[in-house]
């Protein structure tokens, strides 16, 4: 597969996973397929994407796992998301969402203190995001984390 096709497929799968995440009536089988699609998208971005696509892919994989109530892999991919941000000096929106992913995964695992710490970090970073829509997106997702 050439790089252009790989990019197209990675983006198509990423968007497909978003659509699946928004559905409340997924079956158990559809949840499994959503996990596979998220991992496949992330895998494809590895060789054709930038660190921004890598961190967003890790974020999405983590979100999928929290959605299907699997805290251990959610935490693993949330940590990878944050690591990629820090290693590549990715700030703002993506760094805020890395902390959001960790807050959500820790909350799912019942780890209230680290969940609250990462939520606070995400809120602090979000408060400095210039684009109001991006800032509201982060804050809206943070508000949906059950602490």
Number of strands: 0
Please state roughly what percent of the residues sit in beta strands, choosing from under 5%, 5-15%, 15-25%, 25-35%, 35-45% or over 45%.
Answer: under 5%
Q: In DSSP terms, counting alpha (H) and pi (I) runs of 4 or more, how many helices?
A: 7
Mean pLDDT: 97
CATH class: Mainly Alpha
Q: Topology as H/E string?
A: HHHHHHH
Outline: globular
What does this structure look like?
The chain has 147 residues and is an all-alpha fold. It has one domain (3-143): Alpha Horseshoe (Serine Threonine Protein Phosphatase 5, Tetratricopeptide repeat), CATH 1.25.40. Helices cover 82% and strands 0% of the residues. The protein has helices spanning 3-22, 28-48, 51-67, 71-87, 92-109, 112-126, 132-143. Helix 4 (71-87) runs antiparallel to helix 5. The longest helix has 21 residues, at 28-48. The mean pLDDT is 97.
């Amino acid at each position: 597969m050439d790089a252009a096709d790989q990019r197209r497929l990675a983006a198509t799968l990423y968007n497909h996973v978003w659509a699946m995440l928004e559905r409340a009536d997924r079956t158990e089988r559809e949840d499994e397929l959503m996990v596979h699609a998220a991992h496949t998208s992330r895998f494809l971005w590895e060789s054709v994407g930038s660190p921004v696509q890598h961190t967003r892919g890790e974020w999405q994989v983590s979100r999928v796992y929290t959605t299907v109530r699997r805290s251990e892999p959610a935490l693993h991919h949330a940590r990878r998301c944050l690591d990629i941000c820090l290693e590549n000096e990715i700030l703002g929106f993506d760094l805020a969402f890395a902390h959001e992913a960790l807050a959500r995964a820790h909350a799912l695992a019942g780890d209230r203190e680290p969940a609250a710490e990462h939520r606070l970090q995400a809120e602090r970073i979000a408060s400095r995001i210039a684009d109001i829509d991006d800032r509201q997106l982060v804050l809206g997702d943070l508000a949906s984390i059950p602490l």
